[in-house]
Write a structure and sequence with these properties.
Chain lengths: 478, 203
């Protein structure tokens, strides 16, 4: 009897079931565990107190990212500069001590491979298709871009994975986001995922794992796929996936932690078998027409508050739902915006290009293409470009991108989470606006009172040049 | 995990939708290596607004919070659950929760009770002046009036909560099954083991 057609998610899930309980809860094996300094200290401490070991240190990789200042980390004499914030320094020191004491490989703050954990995983070939990947960070969803089942976990689950290399989970429902047609010129993967979140809402994917399907994704680079899957969590889904294909295999082959030789060939054969079967069904399905997607920005304090750049700030009354009307009023008040205002008239004082969503080489190239031969507007007080890893930084410098950024008036920084979440010195001052390539426009996300407009790297560069939110297509020869 | 069966007391009628974990505990509070003391930073931006429900004297020490749809969305930070526990909250009632938050709540013995919006609306009204009771064993939320709202709960989570079971301890008892899986995996998907060895071979 032929087996039931399965989705990509179901195939990965089935391959990782250690045991299935009667009530449907499954013990799921975890192939890769990424650890950073913010969500791990309490887990290591609990292991220590209970006398438990890390079951598979060889499947675990630790790297600091959230707290690290993005200013130079080495003094001219080559010695490491201290982290000024005492609490940040203590948290970073805890990881630096915990990793070796539990036998876990650690990439230190000044290693060339250091970077944001979700940039480092795929870049090092540590993240692989068909694997289960977890990290104490909700943007672990990013690794779905290479076809891994990857999701964020809390610290108790970090401890559970460290101790047992498994998690107790119930299977998720499946959701297909099918994108038909082609994206127009100047429209990027970031615009697409913002548009998708606008369509499904921030709770649209709750309880589901999303699979992004359609020709747009087949043609999309790995960097673009990582951007799309990264923000699955902003659509409520704990994980997002794109079927692994030759584009992914070409990206991964030869990377430091990736398999080699015969093991590589065997792996690729298995990875090819993972694509969703033709007749498989999804619990939920959404179809998007790519030709309707425009360069997109957020106007409010929820990632679902999106509007095409040519649009206006919506009136709260335009929403059918009464509680959404109330939320929109609060958002507009916080954001200092009025209904009917064209988005292109919104002036910005800060520009942030970086984060696990948009700090890879393609993102920096896209922004640099707009900035080349141009400079930031006078009203732009602060503009920073923060590469996602030391290797991205080095490649960008080899391509001369750093000079384009600095010539345009940007600061060129060391890798880290930076201004995405106000845990390190990179913050947006109260009441000021930031055109940001990050993933969350929540109240206070980039610092108390900060006002965030999410957009693509090219759009952030365009905003830097004009000093206001701008349709990047006006600066392109299209 | 501590044992949980019935939670009874005042309930803070917050009612807001999409309360994200950045709102529950902002990032600058996450620079700690402890689970303790985060209550001071809980709901910081809401508490800065005059007249917010957290500052109403009647709700001091209330064990229950009532919120809107999609509670706990956003960041996976378990600090959100720790901050709520530290301020005395041991249950949240809402029409829906983010997946990661509901897991984090459970691991910390916080009940995340899902009820339809109209029942949540009724509880928001009652909570202004009266206590609420959540009975986990029988899966009912009741008020001093005639209200009796049934809720669903994952049977495994319920079992762990009622008996105060340590999940890691339970899983460690499955060691033989995990080992079997690891052996099968090493045979069928051999490239998954020892990624660090690959790294050395490349070097």
């Amino acid at each position: 009897m032929p087996s039931k057609p399965r989705t990509l998610y179901e195939k990965i899930w089935d391959a990782h079931v250690v045991e299935r309980q009667e009530d449907g809860t499954c013990l799921i094996y975890i192939d890769r565990h990424l650890v950073h300094e913010v969500t791990s200290p309490q887990a290591f401490e609990a292991l220590r107190l209970s006398g438990r070991k890390v079951r598979r240190p060889d499947l675990t990789l630790a790297v600091p990212d959230h707290n690290l200042p993005t200013t130079p980390r080495l003094a001219p004499d080559g010695s490491r500069l201290p982290v000024a914030d005492a609490q940040s320094a203590a948290q970073l020191a805890a990881l630096e001590a915990n990793a070796p004491s539990f036998g876990i490989e650690y990439i230190d703050a000044v290693a060339p491979e250091q970077g944001i954990v979700h940039v480092v995983g795929p870049e090092q070939g540590f993240s692989l298709p068909g694997t289960t990947i977890v990290c104490g960070d909700s943007h672990t969803a990013a690794h779905g871009g290479i076809g891994a089942l990857a999701f964020g976990i809390g610290t108790s689950e970090v401890e559970h994975v460290l101790a047992t290399q498994t998690l107790l989970l119930r299977p998720s429902k499946t959701m297909e986001v099918r994108v038909e047609g082609e994206l127009g010129p100047g429209v990027t993967p970031k615009d697409l995922i913002l548009h998708i979140i606008g369509v499904i809402g921030t709770a649209g994917g709750t309880g589901h794992v999303i699979e992004y399907r359609g020709p747009v994704f087949e043609r999309m680079s790995v960097e673009g796929r990582l951007t799309v899957c990264n923000m699955s969590i902003e659509g409520g889904a704990r994980a997002g996936l794109i079927a692994p294909d030759q584009t992914v295999f070409d990206y991964l082959e030869g990377r430091p932690y990736a398999p080699t030789d015969e093991a590589w060939d065997k792996a690729v054969d298995w990875w090819r078998s993972l694509a969703t079967d033709e007749c498989a069904t999804f619990d939920k399905s959404v179809v998007i027409d790519a030709s309707h997607v425009e360069p997109t920005v957020t106007w409010g304090t929820s990632p679902e508050d999106v509007v095409p750049i040519g649009g206006e700030v919506p009136a709260p009354e335009s929403f059918a739902d009464l509680s959404k009307q109330e939320a929109a009023r609060k958002s507009l008040d916080y954001m200092g915006l009025s209904p009917g205002m064209p988005l292109e008239q919104v002036e910005v004082e800060n520009i942030f290009i970086g984060s696990c969503t948009n700090s890879r080489i393609e993102d920096l190239r896209a922004a640099a293409a707009i900035l080349k031969g141009r400079t930031k507007a006078h009203n732009v007080r602060w503009a920073i470009a923060v590469p996602g890893s030391g290797l991205v930084k080095r490649q960008a410098e080899e391509e001369g991108l750093d000079r384009i950024f600095t010539d345009a008036g940007f600061e060129w920084r060391e890798p880290g989470c930076s201004a995405c979440l106000a845990m390190n010195p990179d913050k947006v001052p109260p009441g000021e606006r930031c055109a940001s390539t990050s993933n969350r426009n929540f109240v206070g996300r980039q610092g108390p009172g900060s006002r965030t407009h999410l957009l693509s790297p090219a759009m952030a560069a365009a905003a830097a040049v004009t000093g206001r939110l701008t349709d990047v297509r006006k600066l392109l020869d299209v | 995990m501590k044992q949980v069966s019935t939670i009874s007391g005042r309930a803070i009628p917050l009612g807001l939708k999409n309360v994200d974990t950045d709102v529950i505990i902002p990032a600058h509070w996450l620079k700690t290596v402890s689970r303790e003391g985060l209550g001071k930073g809980a709901f910081e931006s809401i508490r800065q607004t005059p007249g917010n429900p957290f500052d109403v004297e009647d709700f001091a020490g209330a064990p229950i919070l009532i919120a809107g749809d999609n509670f706990g969305c956003g960041s996976s930070r378990e600090h959100a659950a720790w901050a709520m526990l530290d301020m005395g909250l041991t249950a949240v009632i809402a029409p829906s929760f983010s997946d990661i938050f509901s897991g984090n709540a459970f691991k910390n013995g916080i009940l995340a009770v899902e009820l339809p919006q109209e029942q949540v609306d009724r509880l928001l009204e009652v909570a202004k002046d009266h206590p609420i009771t959540i009975d986990l064993e029988n899966q009912f939320v009741t008020t001093p009036f005639q209200d009796r709202f049934a809720f669903e709960v994952d049977p495994f989570r319920k079992h762990c909560l009622l008996n105060g079971l340590d999940e890691i301890g339970l899983t460690l008892e499955r060691d033989a099954a995990i080992e079997t899986h690891e052996k099968e995996r090493a045979d069928s998907l051999p490239w998954l083991d020892a990624p660090t060895r690959n790294r050395r071979e490349h070097a």
